[in-house]
Task: structure prediction
Amino acid sequence: MMKMFWLQRNFVATRKRTLEPPEIPTKQAKISDVIALGANKRVPQAKVDKLMINLICEGLHPFSLVEQPAFKELLLTLNPQCKVISRPTLQTRIDEAANQLKKTLLSHLSKVRYVATTTDFWTAHQQSYIGVTAHWIDEDTLERRSAAFACQRLKGSHTFDVLAGTLDDIHCQYRIRGKVVKTTTDSGSNFIKAFSVFGEQSQTEEAESESDQDSSEEPKADYLDTFSILEQESGLEYQLPPHQRCACHLLNLVTTTDAALAEKNNDTYKRLSCAAFGKCQAMWNKSGRSYMAAEIVEDKCKLQLIRPNQTRWNSTYMAVERIVRIIQENGEDAIRNVCEEFKVKNAESS
Result:
């Protein structure tokens, strides 16, 4: 099932952004007109199947949609002559469409000389995934093109060699290993080490450093154990392009990690900051963990609180901005009443 989900995502992302932009109707038709048109004009079964596949993929609907009686009734009402595609056939058609789209993408990429990729990995529902996208400039139109290469399971530990091997396999799969000019990732330590060990930049720097050392020293004869060298991993089994750290992620680190260092240099700022954000954090935790607490916030403040996310620096800004907005629109008593309901101490001093 995960493979089919990946096929859906790749089929949708590449179709919408690269090769076949969907047509946007200029005028919304009435349902009665559509029904009348379906009664007077026979739509080929192949066209109906294609539209159903597009509906499932672009809407990320479950395959079971085609088995629901309400969906069958809707489709047969619009086109009584058609047949509703079965669930197994739908899965097979999507698989075939994804394979055909991949062939078309490979043919298109064979004419491209330079490609940039982005990659990231994450964990959801106790399962890890890696995603890779590609970007290039169309030489004829000078427009930027993008395609989703992978959204697949990543099993095992997220070590630097596992990430390097997976990314290298995806580059080889789409035959762009020698065309990737840079790969953009976040500043995670595993990504940094993967590119420092297997990236082209590190290999060039090592060659330059070795040449400098050789030029400054007299040549010496070294005797090495050939068997031990062959047994060791040389690190050349993976080939990664130059590394580019994501600027947005770096800014996030500046505004979170580096900004937190300001508390160490100013005791007064640290005391006020800890007191204010301690009360805010208590309200955020209460409202996010209990639906009854969320109802209290909405009743007292007429708005819900926004909880910060540690990986998004602007989420803290938006969360504080929401509290300021509540005070401006409903007065300080709104926040003070919430603090009393949540039993947050010293609400008056905030």
